Each structure stands twice: as structure tokens, then as C-alpha cells.
Amino acid sequence: MEKPWSGRFSEETDEFVEEFTESVSFDRELALEDIRQDIAHVRTLQKAGILSEEETKKIIEGLKGIEKDIREGKFEWKRELEDVHMNIEAELIKRVGDVGGKLHTGRSRNDQVATDERLFLKKETEEIINLLKELRKALVITARNSIDLILPAYTHLQRAQPIRLAHYFLAFREMFLKDTERFLDCYRRIDELPLGSGAVAGVDFPIDRHYTAELLGFNKIVRNSIYATADRDFIAEFLFVCALTGMHLSRLAEDLIIWSSEEFSYVDLPDKLCTGSSIMPQKKNPDVLELIRGKTGRLYGNLLSLLTVLKGIPTAYNRDLQEDKEPLFDSVKTLKGSLIGIRKVIEGLSFKEHKMYPNAGNFVLITDVANYLALKGIPFRKAHHIAGSIVAYLIEKGKRLEDITLEELRSFSELFEEDVFNLFKPENVADRRKTYGGTAREQITKLIEVALREEGLK
Ligand code: ARG
């Protein structure tokens, strides 16, 4: 088959080269963006007096027919035509004749592909931002419903201090809120139009790039034609935010995997989101969560893959840049899947209070015993030491803190009085942490109200 660029060639392309260099097998993902861009470009050419009204109409009709076939899955993609751009252009010429050959006037695939990618990323970033919002809503609602539940917070995976379960879910909401801000910020830099930059140096036809930007809904135009065609920073940045969001999802997934183990038994995962074992009948495996954790590896890999592609290429466009697409498409698909999966799990969680609550007692309360003494004037370091000796004593005796007598406590410090027993209830201890951002019920209740309003749930 004759290539659109075959003029200076005297040999047919090697079969291997066709297979090795093609991108249409994956960049057809950009087909609808490509056609949208084609139409805007044609209108810009008309405005510049390069195409007549008649020609413009003919080309746009041809493009719309192609779009319809693509949407209906009827379009025949040809590997010999290399990529999505040349497939569509060649088909256009086939359908509308020579006039179709005017489509690529004043344009290069270099500014074309960057434009498609930015259009695609605008759409996908919006979708991801919506999915993040759905997830945050689920977290806030779960927080509201779990305000009464107390469990130990862990540091070093050792029981640390009692918290309200709601506090935990609100922590993740904060992370996903920051991720949302990062996507929004990244979106601002995606939202610039490269088209009109040509292959590298700009365009010698009198086209109005601001007009194209307006037609395509871009907020700005890229101000330098070299940068416009060489740049994939907007993709790298997007992939970074995907990787960071994936890391948050993975940590949440990991907590829930641990909590759903029989050893912890803090949560029950919905059956419909778990799978069984082909050999061990008792198993209910948290595969969705495990895959969310595992797929984070891809999100990291995709970022690193693109950064590596970019680091050594001479400015400006090089074919290496074609390698940006598979990581990009993969991260979009992976992150969207993980966001949906984790939300479904969160919405389906049930909690086992009888397992969490006792674990939030005993030595988890001892920090507050030290604080009790500190409030009575003992230097905290010394109070810490006394409280530590109480722990050692109770371990030796095989007793829980709740079972200690006032007499025993007094043997450690005369300052202990009856009121110390108030501290032996995890919820009392949690609710003492009333500072802004602390786990006390009154703090969390306020923050849940704020969060419900911020998420449009109130
Ligand atoms: N398929 C190419 C890519 O994805 C499109 C741009 C090709 N440009 C070129 N000068 N060969 O990067």
C-alpha cells in the first residue's frame, strides 16, 4: 500500500518495520479526539481563506461519516497506515477524493498528536476527578456511620492510641482531596493547545490559533512551537499524580486486607467483592484489594517508563515520543478501575465492634496515664517512666490495665486518685484529644459536617 509519505522512497517498507513502528493498534484510542481536532483544523483553514466553504463542508461530512463508522466499530484500521492520524486521513481521501488531501495543510503529526493527547487527557482527568469525588463521598458517609466505633490506631503496626474509626476514614478523605487538587492543577497545564505549531517551527499559513483553541475548548495556546511539539511534561505530571493516588489506594487496600484477616477480624468484606480458592473451601480472598495494591506497581512503572523515554531525546519531536501512549492509556484504565473498586469495597464494609473495641483498651490507654501524672506537675519524661513501669508490672502479673487497683497504682505514685479510672475506657481517652484535627468525637463531628457540605451531601 502506498504511504502518505512515499514520495521520496524507492523501496517498499520492510514488513518488520511496519509491525515494529505501527501505533494504530493502540493509538486508535485517540480516534474521536483526532476527528474533533480535524474538524476544528478544517474550520481554521477556512477562516484563513485556505479552504472554500464548499471544500470545508465536504471534508467535515467525510469526517463525520468516518466518526460514525468508528463509533459503530465498523472502521477498518490498517497497520500499513501506521497510526490513527494517517488511517483517518487516508480514509477521508478515499471517501471525499482529492479535497481530503487538503486536511493536513499547515499541520504536522507532531502538533496533531500532542493535541489529541491533550484533548484525551482533559476528558480523562475530568472523569478521574469525578471518581475521586465519588470515593470521597463514600468515605465521608462511612465516617459518619462509624463515629461510635473505637479501635486502636497503629504505629509500627503496634497498637498505639485509641481513635474513632471515623477519624481513620477522614484521613483518607484528606489524601484523596489533595490528589483531586493535584489533578485539577495538572489539568490547567494540560489545557493548552499545541496545534498550529507545525512540525517544530510554526506554520506558514495565516491560521488563527486562538480560533482553533476556542473551537476545541482550550483555555490557552502553547506559546512556543518547539515546546508544543517536544513536550510531554503534561503526561509525566499526570502519570505522577496517578502514581501518588495509586499509592494512597494501595495503603488503604493494605489496611483493609489486614483488618479482614481472621487475626484482626475488624472488618467483613462483602462476599460479592471477594473470590474463593479452587482448593481450600474455607477461603474468602480479598482479591479486589490485592489487585488495587498490585496494580499500583503499574502506575509507578508507567511514570518511570515515560520519564526514561523523555530523558535522552534531542529536542524536539522524535519517534521515541510514540512510547508515551501505552503507559498513559494503561494508567488511565488502571486508576479508574482501582478508584471504582475501592469505593465499592468501602460502601460494602461491615465492622466488628467486639473485635476492635477491646484492642483499643489495656496498654493502649497508658499514654494517658502518663499524661495524667504530667497534668499533676510531674515532668513528662518522669511520668512516662512511671507509666512504663506500670506496664512492666502488669505484664509480669498477667493483668490488664483495667484490672489494676488504686492501691497498686499508688505504689507507683501517690498522685493517683479515683478519677484515674475514667481513663480506662478507650472512648474517654479518644475524646480527650480535642485539639483541632484530633480524634475526639466533638472534633470529628464538626469535620464530618464540613465534609458533608464540601461533598455536596448536605
Ligand atoms: N504515531 C506518532 C506518535 O505517536 C505520531 C507522530 C508521528 N510523527 C512523525 N514525525 N513521525 O508519536
TrEMBL record:
Subcellular location: Cytoplasm
GO biological-process terms attached to the record: L-arginine biosynthetic process via ornithine
Pathway noted in the entry: Amino-acid biosynthesis; L-arginine biosynthesis; L-arginine from L-ornithine and carbamoyl phosphate: step 3/3
Keyword tags: Amino-acid biosynthesis, Arginine biosynthesis, Cytoplasm, Lyase
PANTHER family xref list: ARGININOSUCCINATE LYASE
Enzymatic class: lyase
Cross-referenced SUPFAM superfamilies: L-aspartase-like (SSF48557)
Stated name of the protein: Argininosuccinate lyase
EC number: 4.3.2.1
Gene: argH
GO molecular function, one term: argininosuccinate lyase activity
Catalytic activity: 2-(N(omega)-L-arginino)succinate = fumarate + L-arginine
InterPro entries the record matches: Arg_succ_lyase_C, Argininosuccinate_lyase, Fumarase/histidase_N, Fumarate_lyase_CS, Fumarate_lyase_fam, Fumarate_lyase_N, L-Aspartase-like
Chief subcellular location: cytoplasm
UniProt xrefs under PROSITE patterns: FUMARATE_LYASES
Family per record: Belongs to the lyase 1 family. Argininosuccinate lyase subfamily.
